[in-house]
């Protein structure tokens, strides 16, 4: 499972050269549309594919840790393979950082790796126990935990308008739980894993900023070490939860189709990190968040249609509250960042005029 980021060396291009020109509007619009479409396709397909691997009655595989471990292993192989390929290619043809295993670096990012394991494991466990349609609501408290952790760990306060949007998200979350219970499809295990996944996503963002210097600011190096550490740590966990025994008795273990689906899940897990960074590069972090919210809405509608489910008005209301609250939070934070930049610019100009 790759991590995405706009600082990715693979995504960076030289700008501002004497021969550089802004691409035509239509070409730029087409590029953005293609990138956003690619992000939506990979993200939505990955969710449906993981749901199949984790909870399909026809597959009958009850090893969520092994599924997650395998996806991490695929990501490690992709990172190492691209690193070797970049070293063999002519300069400038493929820009990918050199990657080699360094135990000192691996130990330095181990705290992040533990959080990372929690994040991807609880995400998959939430998806295993709840439907794809409810998955977005089940792990919708990431924004709320961002606010809480920013206050308790970073001592950063949040505006009243941002807090109100968090209130809308929490209201949608509880209404969603109520409606899932009314329909007889509520899984408290799925809700618990969704809450833990939301917490780990927030912690992952905070710890990522702290350990990036250890990998020279490279998101791809961090991806490699995180997934490598995860592969090692998953082994005793799989022994503890008896997943090796389950795999031994799994009737499709020798089926090439099964391994093809598993590998495809790993490829999509790696690709989501790349397309996330690509979308941020061609748009902005704010637009990326808006796109993610819209994608979640489309994913919910697709899931209801694909599984031929019938949902009540209040169930849809809970989803709209979560999505609307998330969008409003992104909008409010965007306005606050813009205001802060406008206020800092005059101060910088005043210092320049006084020669300080």
UniProtKB/TrEMBL annotation:
Matching entries from InterPro entries are given as: Sugar_P_trans_dom, TPT_transporter
Localized where? Membrane
Q: Which residues form a coiled coil?
A: none
Tell me where the transmembrane regions lie. 29-53, 65-85, 105-126, 189-207, 227-246, 258-280
Sugar phosphate transporter domain: which residues? 31-329
Asked if the Swiss-Prot or TrEMBL record annotates the protein with the keyword Membrane, the reply is yes
Q: Which GO terms describe its cellular component?
A: membrane
Question: What is the official name of this protein in its record?
Answer: Solute carrier family 35 member C1
Q: Lineage of this protein's species?
A: Eukaryota, Metazoa, Chordata, Craniata, Vertebrata
């Amino acid at each position: 499972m790759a991590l995405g980021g706009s600082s990715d060396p693979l995504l960076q291009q030289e700008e501002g050269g004497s021969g550089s020109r802004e691409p035509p509007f239509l070409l730029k619009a087409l590029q953005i549309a293609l990138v956003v479409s690619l992000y939506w396709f990979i993200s939505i397909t990955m969710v449906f594919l993981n749901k199949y691997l984790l909870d399909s009655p026809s597959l009958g595989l009850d090893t969520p840790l092994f599924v997650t471990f395998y996806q991490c292993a695929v990501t490690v192989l992709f990172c190492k393979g691209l690193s070797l390929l970049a070293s063999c290619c002519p300069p400038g043809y493929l820009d990918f950082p050199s990657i080699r295993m360094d135990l000192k670096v691996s130990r330095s990012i181990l705290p992040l790796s533990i959080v990372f394991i929690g994040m991807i494991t609880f995400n998959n466990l939430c998806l295993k126990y709840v439907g794809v349609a409810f998955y977005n609501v089940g792990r919708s408290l990431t924004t709320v935990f961002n606010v809480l952790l920013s206050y308790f760990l970073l001592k950063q306060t949040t505006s009243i308008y941002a807090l109100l949007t968090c209130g809308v998200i929490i209201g949608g979350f509880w209404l969603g739980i109520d409606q899932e219970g009314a329909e007889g499809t509520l899984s408290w295990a799925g809700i618990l894993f969704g809450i833990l996944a939301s917490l780990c996503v927030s912690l992952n963002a905070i710890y990522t900023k702290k350990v990036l210097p250890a990998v020279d600011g490279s998101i791809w190096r961090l991806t490699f070490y995180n997934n490598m550490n995860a592969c090692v740590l998953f082994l005793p966990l799989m022994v503890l939860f008896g997943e090796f025994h389950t795999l031994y008795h799994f009737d499709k273990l020798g089926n090439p189709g099964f391994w093809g689906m598993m590998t495809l899940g790993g490829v999509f897990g790696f690709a989501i990190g790349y397309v996330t960074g690509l979308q941020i590069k061609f748009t902005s972090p704010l637009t990326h968040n808006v796109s993610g919210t819209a994608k979640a809405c489309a994913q919910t509608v697709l899931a209801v249609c694909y599984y031929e489910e019938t949902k009540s008005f209040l169930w849809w209301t809970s989803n709209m509250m979560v999505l609307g609250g998330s969008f409003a939070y992104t909008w409010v934070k965007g306005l606050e960042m813009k205001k802060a930049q406008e206020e800092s610019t005059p101060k910088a100009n005043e210092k320049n005029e006084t020669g300080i």
